[in-house]
Structure formats: structure tokens, C-alpha cells
Amino acid sequence: MTDAMLQGLHEQEEGRIRRFFSRRLRNREDATDATQETFMRMLEASRSTLIENPQAYLFQVARSVARVASQRAQRESILFAADSEGVEHAEDRPLQDRIVNGRQCLIIMARTIQGLPNRCQQVFILSRLHGLSNGAIAEQLGISRNMVEKHIIRALLECRKMRAEIIF
After folding, report:
1. Which of 78, 80, 142, 158 would be 88's cystine partner, CB 3.0–4.6 Å?
2. Dihedral sign, Cα of residue 98, residue 104, residue 107, residue 113
3. pLDDT digits (tens, 9 = 90+) for 106-131
4. CATH code for the domain of 139
5. In this predicted structure, what is the pLDDT of residue 90?
6. Global pTM value
7. Which sign does the torsion angle of CA 91, 95, 99, 102 carry?
């Protein structure tokens, strides 16, 4: 996707995307930030990915950004609790049971990742922990981007399966 095509998409769809976020986030500033984030992700993706249907892809990215923004808002509402006078205070520390639970989940996920085949484990760590793109991983390991994607999908499925088995 060329920069001109992306610019055209931005001009054509910015208003719709902003309304989409306004309905979901109910805050003008958050909707503006989410709109900008959506187009930034679109710009990054367009440089490394062939996008056959840019409009559909744009709204898929927007849904992802909306989900992340909603989750962030929920976390913030939990962290900032209003006292009896209406003044908000941040909790200094998470509750002890949340710390223990988080550590246990982290250990289980680490074991799940260790149980993956070596190449799959390598690809997943390069992708998720080191933040390398699929193309960079493929080049570094001497494999195709398609194989990189297959390894990441397999690792994510294993992690999802393990997480589903954990009961909170």
C-alpha cells in the first residue's frame, strides 16, 4: 500500500473511525488518540504486509485498538478508587493474592513456552519478547515468513490452551 493510498484512506475514513471510537470509548480525547493509533498501526502494517482490502483491515485494526483501550480504561478504573470525599487515589501496590496469582501464571506460561519445539520457541521469543517483525525473524533464522507465522500461531495456541486450563 502506497503512502498516497494510505493518505486517501485516512481522508475517506477518519470521520467514521473517530465516530466508531467515540461510541465505544465515550471520551473525545480517547477517541482522538485511538484514531491516531489506528492509523499509525495501519502505516506500520502497510510497510511490511500486503493489504488486499485496506478498508476492512483498517476497521479490524480499529476493533483491536478499541479492545485495548477498553481494557486499559477498566484497569485504570480499578487502580484509581475514589474515597468518600470523591478524591481519587492510586493504589500503591497490588493486592497480595494478585501478585501470587500473576507469578503462578507467569511460571505456567514460561513452562508452556519451554515445552514448545526449539524453533517454535525461538520464533516466539524473538517475536514477543524482543519485538522483532516476522520478516526480521525469517531473515535472522533463515526461514520463510510463512514458517515464522506458523510457529507464532502454534505458540499462541499452546499458550491460549494452557491459559484456558488455569482456573482463577
Report:
1. 80
2. negative
3. 888 889 999 999 999 999 999 988 98
4. 1.10.10.10
5. 55
6. 0.47
7. negative
